UniProtKB/TrEMBL annotation:
GO terms for molecular function: acetoacetate-CoA ligase activity; ATP binding. Residues 102-490 form the AMP-dependent synthetase/ligase domain. One of its GO terms (biological process) is lipid metabolic process. Pfam families: AMP-binding. Keywords: ATP-binding, Ligase, Nucleotide-binding. This is Acetoacetate-CoA ligase. Belongs to the ATP-dependent AMP-binding enzyme family.
């Protein structure tokens, strides 16, 4: 593969690029199709120009288990058509996760944050043989509930071994997996689960975070009460007991994990005559799991991902692009509510060991790096915010740990600042592939990211991923010129495109299915005709070392809040305010809010942001300290600590458009330094109120400036 450079400085060059799986794949493509591709960019261009041949070849290269059949996709289809893929194929995602059955190889290693009561918690380990047996028993137990393919099975849990087993067992029988992190407030989970109505919910009894045990069953009970009241849903509840002195439960309808597994073991359902799990192989486009958007413009969008797309895309990313190997130990710091959990679990298809972690990543900044040495972690995944915080507290892992086992470090969640590239190579490891990766919940995979055959350039994502035809468009829908930033779009179909929003046809009323389909089109295909609009503002850099150009992420195009790399929508805060502080006859007038607006202010030199909540009160009341505390408390308990605003500020009025929509993006720009003249006042119902936001913005920026000088 041609790796000649135009002379740009490098931070890392792969020592064995020519022996990488990516180069091997290029060689196979040349041989199969009689081509003379020479660089990664050559391969990339072929992959997006011949999507049918490319994905057909990927299926064979990564050894998908299942029936492929004839036909891949219409090579002339446009993304907006969301064409079917591999129409004759029959696969099961979980079956492909459990091809390794070794009794001597660990599949899962669970580490838990220490607490004063348990300063040295032992790691839990499960071999691939044990994992398969436990999945088989849980499959049997789930079948005793008369579950059918397409039924939803949900989790409100921590990042534990049982959660992975539950996901594998549910999808093994064709059920659709739904997950919410244990640190989510019950109101946020209720808004998600009520849309998909799961028949079963798995939940832990307690979680560990920041050195403390947090009892989870009260939140579970609150969720179940809400589901019963709102949609008359009473799912079967399986409680995963953690042995952390969690509170007992009174509900006799709940079942413990151990009892449920024992029931499955004795029932022996869902097995073939040979004792193999009776995998429910479905079509390539069969729904695998539902992920939720952040909820910026209303309730979180339930995004349905197809089983074949998730499998084929993950295998392409891991095998061909990242060169993951069965001997790797793969860790990603994530909760079960972030798509990186799904990303991590898909690593089982490689046969490598996955490390799960339940706890805070920074209470003891050395802890995760101790795990690297102890468990010989070779692939370390985290967020840009974690690396930023680690650098700011002055922690230098390289000075305290060996870390020679590390091959790759992955970073996502927010753009990785240029200085953090330097920090990783100077303070963590001088010879590691640092991959800033981007994609998101919408595709549950990557548009751009890592390649083991390419070097790393400071501040850049290495490359556009094979088969992902991403470009940058101007606001009026033209291709950006060289050096011009624009909106990230994908101009060719890709197999990990969501099937749609829930409910799909056959899973809801005609009216609800049509509404979901319309919402789906408006989310991704309303901005530009026929191409996928992703909502990221990016720059594609000039090609270096044959990479076809790296990517620099410049931020979200919309108003999604992203403090500390944790994305969520403004409506999640609005809903709490509406529920707890809206005017009613029963509520004291001093506890009411007339209106509100929430935006993000850029901090830390643009590497992070903080949440600013503006409130308008009734009459001539003044925002009191007690009211501020109550607002923070309700947001914290009903959402999460990450949702709590950094500043709550009273304003005289909230700006609205002529058609009655809150004006978030212009206010965000103003408090970050834009002039009022940059806003088209003709589109606003009350443009005069922007002057107050400009004044407040100056005050907020001065706060940040003073804080940075301390």
């Amino acid at each position: 593969m041609n790796t000649e450079s135009p002379g740009a400085p490098l931070l890392f060059a792969p020592p064995d690029a020519r022996t990488s799986r990516c180069v091997a794949f290029l060689t196979n493509v040349n041989k199969k199709y009689g081509l003379a591709l020479d660089s990664y960019f050559d391969l990339y261009q072929w992959s997006i120009g011949h999507i049918d041949s490319f994905w057909d070849t990927v299926w064979d290269e990564v050894a998908i288990v299942g029936y492929k059949g004839q036909g891949v996709v219409d090579n002339n289809a446009l993304p907006a058509a969301n064409p079917p893929w591999f129409s004759e194929a029959r696969i099961n995602w979980a079956e492909n996760m459990l091809t390794c059955r070794s009794p001597d190889k660990f599949a899962l290693i669970q580490a838990t944050e220490p607490t004063p009561e348990c300063p040295n918690p032992p790691h839990r380990r499960v071999t691939y043989a044990d994992l398969y047996a436990m999945v088989a028993d849980l499959v049997s137990a789930l079948l005793t509930l008369d579950l059918k393919p397409g039924d939803r099975v949900a989790s409100y849990s921590s990042n534990c071994i049982e959660n992975v087993i539950a996901c594998l067992a549910a999808t093994a029988i064709g059920c659709i997996w739904v997950s919410a992190a244990a640190d989510f407030g019950t109101q946020g989970v209720l808004e998600r689960f009520e849309q998909v109505q799961p028949r079963v919910i798995f939940a832990v009894d307690a979680v560990v975070y920041n050195g403390k045990v947090h009892h989870h069953l009260p939140k579970l009970q609150s969720l179940l009460s809400g589901l019963s009241e709102r949609c008359s849903l009473n799912p079967v509840v399986i409680v995963i007991q953690s042995a952390r002195n969690a509170s007992a439960w009174d509900d006799t309808n709940w079942v413990s994990w151990d009892s449920f597994i024992s029931k499955g073991k004795s029932s022996c359902l869902g097995r073939t005559a040979e004792g193999e799990i009776e995998w429910c192989r479905q079509s390539f486009d069969w729904p695998l799991w539902i992920l939720f958007s952040s909820g910026t413009t209303g309730r979180p969008k339930p995004i349905v991902h197809r089983a074949g797309g998730m499998l084929l895309q993950a295998k392409k990313e891991f095998v061909i692009c990242a060169d993951l190997r069965p001997e790797d130990v793969f860790f990603y710091y994530t909760t079960t509510g972030w798509m990186m959990w799904n990303f991590l679990v898909s690593g089982l298809s490689i046969g490598c060991a996955l490390v799960l972690y339940d706890g805070s990543p920074l209470r003891d900044p050395s802890y995760l790096w101790h795990l690297v040495d102890e468990l010989q972690i070779s692939i370390f995944g985290t967020s840009a915010k974690y690396l930023d915080q680690l650098s700011r507290i002055g922690y230098r892992p390289r000075d305290h740990h060996d870390l020679t086992c590390l091959r790759h470090i992955y970073s996502t969640g927010s753009p990785l600042a240029h200085a953090l590239f330097d920090y990783v190579y100077e303070r963590i490891h001088p010879n590691v592939l640092l991959a800033s990766i981007t994609g998101g919940t919408d595709i549950c995979s990557l548009f751009a990211g890592m390649c083991s055959a390419l070097p790393v350039h400071r501040g850049e994502i290495q490359c556009r991923m094979l088969g992902m035809a991403i470009e940058t468009f101007t606001h009026d829908g033209h291709n950006c010129q060289a050096g011009e930033a624009g909106e990230l779009v994908c101009v060719r179909p890709f197999p990990c495109m969501p099937i749609g929003f829930w409910p799909l046809a056959g899973f809801g009323t005609d009216e609800s299915v049509k509404a979901a389909a319309k919402r789906f089109r408006l989310s991704y295909f309303a901005e530009y005709k026929d191409v996928w609009y992703h909502g990221d503002h990016v720059l594609i850099t000039p090609s270096q070392h044959g990479n076809g150009g790296g990517l620099i992420m410049l931020g979200r195009s919309d108003g999604v809040l992203n403090p500390g790399g944790i994305r969520f929508g403004s409506s999640e805060i609005y809903n709490v305010l509406e529920m707890c502080f809206s005017f009613s006859e029963e509520r004291n007038a001093n506890d009411t809010i007339e209106d509100a607006l929430v935006v993000a202010q850029s901090i830390e030199g643009g590497t992070d942001e903080r949440v600013i909540l503006f409130v308008k009160l009734y009459g001539k009341r003044t925002l009191s300290i007690e009211m501020e505390q109550k607002i923070r408390s309700e947001i914290r308990s009903r959402r999460s600590p990450r949702h709590v605003p950094a500043r709550i500020i009273q304003v005289d009025d909230i700006p609205y458009t002529l058609n009655g929509k809150r004006v978030e993006i212009p206010v965000k720009k103003i408090i970050n330094g834009a002039q009022i003249s940059s806003v088209n006042s003709a589109t606003l119902r009350n443009p005069e109120c922007l002057a107050q936001f400009a004044s407040i913005g100056e005050m907020l920026r001065n706060e940040i400036s003073i804080a940075m000088k301390r």
